[in-house]
Specification:
mainly alpha; single chain; 13 helices; 314 residues; globular; 75% helix
């Protein structure tokens, strides 16, 4: 039952992430750059998460875990989302979100290689069906996509590796502290790195050119697509295996396509719908089996996280 609760929480989180993708596309079309969007999303997100964590007196990561938690936060909220926003500048919100749906496969592979999550044919079949649906939808709709859309989809698929490491390594840290404490420290480290980069490059000045509509979109991006979506995401990781949580990312394109259709007039095509049917089938197959995750035994330390993330090509 706990696994299914985690999956349901992750579905809500992924739906919010999909709407954030559409809002990101709306701001990108308005000439906002990837770094500025990342600063906006995670600066606002951190300002929402920190007071809640302090008010609830959450259990914070131990001193020994802070370097690892901060590194994971920089990897996800810093590196991943800069590439995420860059991908949105090349392709549609729906197609970028479909590429993001390769997260389950990458999470499964990373977890298996590091010995953290055991594989099964049942789980692998579900993930592969979902990913094949993504690939088929992207390939069949390429003729109707914007020029150079494949660049955005490749950037997104490559950047997803950052989030795969985050999913796999998060659970032990969360269990040694708390979901909200882990999130606040990681998001804070990522937001701090982004603000410093914005000051050094002068990108913070771009925010002064935003009108009321852009600020409303930016606030939604930070509150719903940043704080709320990731509070729910780490809550899901606390209750379900990394691969099962990652599987719900395939819900993301539905929300992205529906909202982007309203915001920027992106079409909802038949190939996208067929791909999403395959995605849902894959989610059902992969989550229908009992959990087989290895309990954390303390072997995944902050030093191990740092070594794994810093190795080129991992």
């Amino acid at each position: 039952m706990g696994e299914w609760v985690g999956v349901l929480i992750a579905i809500v989180s992924s739906s919010l992430g999909g709407t954030a993708a559409a809002v990101t596309r709306y701001l990108v079309v308005g000439s906002a750059d990837p770094l500025t969007l990342s600063i906006l999303r995670w600066g606002i997100g951190f300002l929402c998460v920190l007071p809640v964590a302090l008010l609830l007196r959450v259990r914070w990561p131990t001193r020994a875990d802070w370097p690892g938690v901060a590194l994971l936060g920089f990897c996800l909220y810093g590196l991943f989302f800069i590439f995420y926003n860059l991908a949105m500048s090349f392709t549609t919100a729906a197609r970028a979100s479909l590429a993001l749906s390769t997260l389950p496969l990458q999470t499964m592979i990373v977890g298996a290689l590091l010995g953290i999550e055991r594989l099964s044919w049942h789980k692998a079949a579900g993930v592969l069906i979902a990913v094949l649906g993504v690939c088929a939808a992207l390939a069949s709709g390429l003729a109707k996509a914007p020029d150079g859309a494949w660049r955005g989809e490749l950037i997104m698929a490559g950047a997803v590796l950052c989030m795969a490491f985050y999913n796999v390594f998060s659970r032990p840290f969360i269990q040694r502290s708390s979901a909200l404490g882990f999130l606040a420290v990681g998001m804070g480290s990522g937001a701090l790195a982004l603000v410093v980069a914005g000051l050094l490059t002068g990108r913070l000045a771009v925010l002064a050119s935003f009108g009321p509509a852009q600020w409303c979109a930016g606030v939604y991006l930070g509150v719903a697509g940043g704080a709320l979506a990731f509070i729910l995401w780490v809550m899901a990781l606390q209750r379900a295996s990394p691969t099962r949580v990652a599987n719900t990312m395939t819900v993301n394109p539905i929300a992205a396509a529906l909202l982007a259709q309203q915001l920027v007039g992106e079409p909802l095509t038949l190939d996208l719908l067929l791909g999403l049917i395959a995605v849902f089938a894959g989610i059902w197959i992969a989550t229908a089996e009992g959990a087989k995750i290895r309990p954390p035994d303390g072997d995944v330390t902050a030093a191990a996280v740092e070594r794994a993330v810093m190795i080129p090509g991992r």
